[in-house]
Design a protein that fits this description.
alpha+beta, CBS-domain, 3-stranded mixed beta sheet, two-stranded antiparallel sheet, 17% strand, elongated
Length: 151
């Protein structure tokens, strides 16, 4: 299954922040639900929606622990992770999930034509594939074990 199919069926829930936002502004973004969910990771994008990095609640917590009150005036680009692995909508979802598992990451921005198209969350993708497999097994069982077959 392609990443694009998952995104089409599941949605492309993603929180974005700007690299020049203060950590207070970024924290306020995290406090607002996106698609009915509160997220723990934001993709840092410039005005053209080009991915510059990612920032997590954990990154913000570390900044606060390391810099105290000064963290409030720090900018997001000062604490974000810049070595970000990405995928494209044309990538195979299972391959991307294996890459994520091997790399120890839980989220991967989806890039299309150089700009952000969504965010793939490993947990959401795995739950989706599990539900798809369960439905497939149930349908197959119903089809195979129909008791009204004559021969």
């Amino acid at each position: 299954m392609k990443v694009s199919k998952f995104m089409h069926l599941h949605g492309a829930i993603v929180l974005t922040v700007r690299p020049d936002s203060t950590l207070v502004e970024t924290a306020r973004s995290f406090s607002q639900p996106v698609g009915g969910r509160k997220l723990s990771l934001a993709v840092v994008c410039d005005e053209a929606e080009t991915v510059k990095g990612v920032v997590s609640l954990g990154d913000m917590s570390h900044a606060l622990a390391n810099h105290g009150e000064k963290a409030a005036s720090m900018l997001t680009h000062e604490i974000m992770s810049t070595n970000v692995m990405t995928c494209s909508p044309d990538d195979n979802l299972e391959d991307v999930l294996q890459t994520m598992a091997k790399s120890g990451i839980r989220h991967m921005p989806v890039i299309e034509n150089g700009t952000l198209a969504g965010l793939l969350a490993r947990r959401d993708a795995l739950e989706f594939l599990y539900r798809q497999a369960s439905l497939d097994v149930e349908s197959l069982s119903d089809w195979l074990f129909v008791s009204e077959a004559r021969y």
